[in-house]
Design brief:
This protein is mainly β. The chain has 1 helix and 6 strands; from the N terminus they run ββββββα.
Length: 94
């Protein structure tokens, strides 16, 4: 897989995740967040997860909550999946 820009993932004490290289957020709730990164599709799982910072222009994302797992999945995109419930902007502004 070709590398396209910076891709950096940091987890602090399983309670805060910082990610550089985010291109699109597909869906999110307190148990699962799906997103496209410059290194492929990424699925985060956990408990009480909330997106506290999102800047798609810079490709940065910060998630707080209990991080239980993350999985990169080849050949999949969050853009094709339908978000559960409200649109992304409505859910962030909730």
């Amino acid at each position: 897989m070709e590398e396209h820009g910076l891709h950096l993932l940091t987890i602090e004490s399983r309670k805060k995740l910082k990610l550089a290289g985010v291109q699109h957020v597909g869906s999110f709730d307190e148990q699962e967040i799906t997103l496209d990164t410059n290194m492929g599709f990424l699925k985060l799982s956990g408990e009480g997860m909330h997106i506290t910072h999102l800047n798609l222009d810079e490709g940065n994302l910060v998630v707080e909550g209990l991080i239980n797992g993350l999985e990169y999945v080849e050949g999949r995109s969050s853009k094709g999946s339908k978000a559960r419930g409200k649109g992304l902007i409505n859910r962030i502004l909730k």
